[in-house]
Design a protein that fits this description.
The protein is mostly helical. The chain is built from 1 helix and no strands. The longest helix is centred in the middle third of the chain and has 138 residues.
């Protein structure tokens, strides 16, 4: 009988240990489920954040490409405007040189005409003096 009571006590103790172990197991399973849920939420959040960041990066990449195209178009406009200005400057320089040459030619022509006119005036004066001298001699 004593042995039977000891067995019963051991059985009760073992049942208590099993109950404690089952409680610990249930608690561990609950904690594990809670952690799985948190991890799933974190993965979903992380995945959503990754998608959002990827979309943001793509938007920035497209914006950078658009800006680059705009910059290139503006650069081409500036190049074309500069080339046009260079052509105009070249034409203006050629026109200036032509005008300078024409001016020099005109100055030379006027100078020659002036010399001819001065020579003609001097000849007329000389002729007038000669005539006056001749007239004075004849009238004496």
């Amino acid at each position: 009988v004593i042995q039977e009571e000891e067995y019963m006590v051991q059985i009760v103790e073992l049942e208590q240990q099993v109950a404690v172990a089952m409680t610990a197991k249930n608690k561990a399973e609950t904690q594990l489920a809670e952690r799985d849920k948190q991890m799933t939420e974190m993965e979903a959040t992380s995945s959503g954040e990754s998608v959002r960041l990827a979309a943001s990066v793509e938007t920035m990449r497209l914006e950078a490409m658009r800006k680059q195209r705009e910059h290139e178009a503006e650069r081409e406009k500036v190049k074309a405007a500069l080339a046009e200005l260079k052509r105009k400057a070249d034409r203006a320089e050629k026109a200036r040189k032509k005008l300078e040459l024409n001016s020099t030619e005109e100055k030379e022509k006027w100078s020659t005409e002036r010399e001819v006119l001065q020579a003609s005036i001097q000849e007329s004066q000389t002729s007038s003096r000669s005539s006056a001298d001749e007239l004075a001699r004849v009238t004496e």
